[in-house]
From TrEMBL:
<feature type="domain" description="Histidine kinase/HSP90-like ATPase">
    <location>
        <begin position="23"/>
        <end position="136"/>
    </location>
</feature>
<dbReference type="InterPro" id="IPR050267">
    <property type="entry name" value="Anti-sigma-factor_SerPK"/>
</dbReference>
<keyword id="KW-0418">Kinase</keyword>
<dbReference type="InterPro" id="IPR003594">
    <property type="entry name" value="HATPase_dom"/>
</dbReference>
<keyword id="KW-0547">Nucleotide-binding</keyword>
<dbReference type="InterPro" id="IPR036890">
    <property type="entry name" value="HATPase_C_sf"/>
</dbReference>
<dbReference type="GO" id="GO:0004674">
    <property type="term" value="F:protein serine/threonine kinase activity"/>
</dbReference>
<keyword id="KW-0067">ATP-binding</keyword>
<protein>
    <submittedName>
        <fullName>ATP-binding protein</fullName>
    </submittedName>
</protein>
<keyword id="KW-0808">Transferase</keyword>
<dbReference type="Pfam" id="PF13581">
    <property type="entry name" value="HATPase_c_2"/>
</dbReference>
<keyword id="KW-0723">Serine/threonine-protein kinase</keyword>
<dbReference type="GO" id="GO:0005524">
    <property type="term" value="F:ATP binding"/>
</dbReference>
Length: 149
């Protein structure tokens, strides 16, 4: 009987991204925040940045619902979480075409317009990327402390 060769995975084994799809409805914000934070602390051992991640996830999902979701079959948003290169990455994607690349200042009495300012303040890195077929992804990175597990 011939023995199979032993294949050793790289050390550490890279984490497989976790992906969710949510309806573009206000109720999805709290559900997405809970899913993302639970996965970050359990799967990616990122408890040190959970508070920042919770706020950023809420902001990104809210913005995708308000500004990026399109009616019909594309009235959904996607969230993807992964850890690589000593960062915890979160991408929130929608089918909208409007791409805002820089934080804008809001007027003092307004109740909106501070989302990208918040993202810029809390995320260690962030960008907006066009998607191949349609829409965009806002990607944030939080520096992760310690080795990947």
């Amino acid at each position: 009987m011939r023995q199979q060769p032993t294949v050793r995975p790289p050390d550490p084994v890279p984490a497989v991204p976790v992906r969710w799809v949510y309806p573009a409805q206000p109720e999805s914000v709290s559900r997405a925040r809970g899913d993302i934070c639970t996965s970050a602390s359990r799967t990616f051992r990122a408890a040190d940045r959970t508070d920042d991640l919770a706020l950023l996830a809420s902001e990104l999902v809210t913005n995708a619902i308000l500004h990026g979701a399109l009616p019909a079959r594309e009235y959904v948003i996607e969230a993807t979480l992964w850890r690589a290169d000593n960062y915890l990455w979160l991408a929130v994607s929608d089918a909208g075409e409007d791409v805002i690349l820089t934080p804008a200042s809001s007027w003092p009495g307004g109740c909106g317009g501070r989302g990208l300012l918040l993202i810029d303040a809390l995320a260690d890195v962030w960008t907006v990327l066009p998607r191949a077929a349609r829409g965009k992804s806002v990607v944030i990175g939080l520096a992760a402390e310690g080795p990947m597990r």
